[in-house]
Amino acid sequence: MKKITLLFLFCLTVNFWSYSQCTNPVYQWPNATVTIGATPGLQTIATNNWPQNEFSVIDGLVPGNMYTVTASPAAYITVTTDGTTVVTHGLASVSFTASTTGITVYWTADAACNDGGQVDTLTQIECTSCTCTATAAPVLENPTPSDGNMMVPIVPDGADLLITPFEWEDNGDPSDSYTLSLGITPAGNDIGTLDPATNGNGIIYTWTENTTYYWFVTGTNCQGTTTSPVWSFTTAACNETTAPTCGNLLLPADNDPDVGTVEATNGTREVNLSWEVVPGALAYNITFDGNDLGSTADTDIDIFGLDYDTQYTWSVSPINCFGQATGCATRTFTTEQDPNLSISEFDIKALSVYPNPVKDVLNVKTDLALESIEVFNILGKNVLTVSGNQISDNSINLSALNNGVYFVNIFAEGNKETIKVIKE
Questions:
Q1: Pick from 252, 382, 239, 244: nearest CA to 312
Q2: C-alpha–C-alpha distance, residues 42 and 297, integer Å
Q3: Do 121 and 231 fall within a single domain?
Q4: Which of 125, 350, 360, 420 is the most buried (most CB within 10 A)?
Q5: What is the CATH number of the domain that holds 417?
Q6: Same domain, yes or no, for 123 and 144?
Q7: Are 80 and 181 found together in one domain?
């Protein structure tokens, strides 16, 4: 009877091994989720996984794309969607079509789920169906603040301190994403790294006067990753003893009932706001229709995303290194009536976004196939563009954007819809 029982158990064990569901979560390595890009070419999961039932958590896959996972020296690979549901398995290399944005991969010595030695194993993943339109890696240069600048002002932003903008030129094939690293040592990264970073945004930090800071940018596209030189700047001392005066608003005129608009690049209506230069002002904080748009060094801005025959309010508060003007006048204007009584470019019932307001991930609800999504701030600057194979589960991540009002252009099956979104 013992022999029968043991034989029965042995058969069960062999049957279990034959399916190679090696999903025993012994140790996660790397010990943080590995995010990959929707680009062709091998992307490293780790250089030193061990085939000892270690597992790796990977994010950033695009459902519908095909992927290949490899291990060298050869280890046995088990790919799961959730840590237990097996997608595929095999020795050294496996391929599959992604059904989720995230996977968990287990590394063992063999199909029997045995532990191997402490062998550093290079583990990689490749999107084999992704296409690449770039012909070269990014080229990152010409920074703002300029390299070596000794007089970079610190701008009060409410209770915060702001340096703006952090900007650079991308003169190769444009990057799909950026990270920005900042430090007070020549390494340029001891304060931390913004991942992702947006070209042209300011950075709020506990900046100190007369201090040299170092920073660099890393850009990635489907041809590779480029890291800029380490740039430096020194913050200026503040010699002001009072905040600036308010200054005069110019156009539109106060209570103008018929302000003409022009068509913006995203198809909405656009109006220019302008005001006088205030002596000593480093920047001007803009409030539009109850929304704080942040500050600009310019004395005019284009506001877009406006509607016909609608009343709006706005004000401008000059800022110097001491602080921001208070009690500045608010103006009101009304846009012109729609001369054509135009209708939406396509039925808005076919498309919506949620949640709105949004904190991080914005979801697009539609039966149409999404082609691309563009995000503009209310000043008309494109702060994010996501193309088809980068749109995961009909959603985009807005967590890197500052709080405020944005306009989202959604392109789907040859149509376009623009939706106003509030980022909290």
A1: 252
A2: 43
A3: no
A4: 125
A5: 2.60.40.3080
A6: no
A7: no
Instruction: Express each pLDDT in 356-393 by its tens digit.
Output: 888 888 888 877 888 888 888 776 677 788 776 667 67
User: pLDDT value at position 20?
Assistant: 52
Q: Are the beta carbons of 332 and 290 closer than 8 angstroms? A: no
CATH of the domain at 302: 2.60.40.10
- CB atoms under 10 Å from CB of 424, counted, come to 11
- Cα distance between residue 285 and residue 296, in whole Å: 7
Whole-number pLDDT of residue 15: 33
Same domain as 365, residue 408: yes
> For 73-93, what is the mean pLDDT?
92
- Domain stops at, among 311, 335, 359: 335
Residue 161 covered by a domain: yes
Domain count, the chain: 4
- The first and second tokens of residue 110, run together, are 């063999």
Q: How far is CA 325 from CA 6, 79, 201, 290, 385, in A?
A: 85, 59, 23, 17, 35
Q: What is the distance between the alpha carbons of residues 364 and 344, in angstroms, rounded to a whole number?
A: 18
Cα distance between residue 7 and residue 27, in whole Å: 32
Partner residues linked to 361 by β-bridges: 397
pLDDT in tens, 88-133: 999 999 999 998 889 999 999 999 999 888 899 999 999 988 877 7
CB 253 within 8 A of CB 260: no
pLDDT higher than threshold 80 for residue 5: no
Of residues 108, 72, 114, the one with CA closest to residue 93: 72
Domain span at 395: 348-423
Q: Tokens 């993943």 label which residue? A: 125
